[in-house]
């Protein structure tokens, strides 16, 4: 059985290191960054979009753009996972894995991670594009998955493209939809980005067309806070007022909000706007933790019983 390594770094510095997680039916690869001197406040679980890898959240094009190093410097463990069908599990699942299957495997991987690592207040999931679908699926099963909240980008419910324009195993679609204006990205983003690109598994591509119909049922089950971010030059999904209203309408049991990020294209975490976006992600995580800590006594007690058991604390202790 593989065990996630503790990130080693010189005093005062943080870096991401490779990790392999046991997910039961498969091994999931990824990247891990941990606070150098203290237990984490929580664990940020970052899931990449279609045709990418975990390194999407660890941009090396310029200092400060990586979610992994930023999160660890601010006291969080950040775990970026290669979704099932990518990385170490690509050979195990040559056609990829459905969304429900990805969620099952990632839940197992997170339980494995929590069996040997401190997780603070629990898991906060960050998802981009197709990975945002997985983030919302985990959020819909928050008590079982120990999810605090979800922050997603590059995902809506009204496509700005036709079905035959969606990325598939044969290609990634029009590059301008993925990137927007090239001025939004450091020049090195494209040189480093080549090693992050992977084929979109067939099962994932086939299921993508069902998302607008599947989303309302999924959203109705979400009770944890959710934040959506649309890049200024988001070109895969509509995000006008009518589209945003449709996106939020099914989230009846969740506190939900929508943010728009200037000077950004679809691949936010690889662009100049990455640090701005990641700081807002972590600020939203802090809001989620604050809401739990400041909850009325009755609801706070109910949360402890449902999520962690009667001896747990909302801000401290492992999640198992």
Q: How is the secondary structure organized here?
A:
Layout: E1 17-22, E2 27-33, E3 43-47, H1 67-73, E4 77-81, H2 99-114, E5 123-128, H3 130-139, H4 142-145, E6 147-153, H5 175-179, H6 188-193, H7 202-208, H8 211-219, E7 226-233, H9 241-248, E8 256-265, H10 274-293, H11 297-308
Parallel strand pairs: 3-4, 3-5, 5-6, 6-7, 7-8
Antiparallel strand pairs: 1-2, 2-4
Helix pairs in contact: 2-3
Q: Overview of this structure, please?
A:
The protein is α/β, with parallel strands linked by helices and 320 residues long. The chain has one domain (17-308): Rossmann fold (3-Layer(aba) Sandwich). 32% of the residues lie in helices and 17% in strands. The protein has helices spanning 67-73, 99-114, 130-139, 142-145, 175-179, 188-193, 202-208, 211-219, 241-248, 274-293, 297-308; strands at residues 17-22, 27-33, 43-47, 77-81, 123-128, 147-153, 226-233, 256-265. It has an eight-stranded mixed β-sheet, sandwiched between helices. Strand 1 (17-22) and strand 2 (27-33) form a beta hairpin. Helix 2 packs across helix 3 (130-139).
């Amino acid at each position: 059985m593989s065990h996630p390594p503790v990130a080693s770094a010189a005093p005062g510095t943080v870096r991401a290191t490779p990790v392999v997680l046991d997910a039961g039916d498969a091994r999931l690869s990824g990247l891990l960054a941990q606070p150098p001197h203290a237990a984490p406040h929580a664990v940020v679980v970052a899931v990449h979009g279609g045709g990418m890898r975990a390194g999407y959240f660890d941009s090396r094009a310029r200092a400060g753009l990586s979610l992994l190093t930023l999160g660890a410097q601010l006291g969080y463990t950040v775990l970026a996972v290669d979704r099932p069908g990518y990385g170490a599990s690509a050979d195990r699942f040559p056609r990829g894995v459905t969304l429900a299957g990805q969620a099952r495997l990632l839940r197992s991987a997170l339980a494995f991670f929590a069996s040997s690592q401190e997780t603070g207040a629990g898991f906060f999931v960050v998802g981009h594009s197709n990975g945002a679908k997985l983030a919302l699926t985990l959020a819909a099963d928050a008590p079982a998955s120990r999810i605090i909240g979800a922050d997603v980008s590059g995902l809506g419910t009204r496509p700005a493209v036709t079905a035959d324009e969606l990325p598939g195993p044969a290609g990634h679609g029009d590059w301008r939809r993925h990137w927007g204006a090239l001025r939004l990205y450091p020049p090195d983003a494209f040189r480093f980005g080549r090693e992050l690109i992977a084929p979109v598994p067939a099962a994932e591509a086939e299921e993508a067309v069902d998302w607008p119909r599947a989303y309302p049922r999924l959203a109705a089950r979400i009770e944890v806070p959710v934040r959506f971010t649309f890049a200024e030059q988001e070109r895969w999904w509509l995000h006008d007022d009518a589209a945003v209203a449709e996106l939020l309408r099914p989230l009846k049991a969740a506190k939900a909000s929508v943010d728009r990020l200037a000077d950004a294209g679809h691949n936010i975490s690889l662009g100049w706007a990455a640090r701005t976006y990641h700081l807002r992600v972590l600020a939203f995580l802090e809001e989620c933790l604050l809401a739990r800590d400041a909850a009325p006594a009755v609801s706070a007690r109910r949360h402890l019983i449902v999520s962690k058991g009667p001896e747990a604390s909302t801000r401290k202790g492992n999640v198992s």
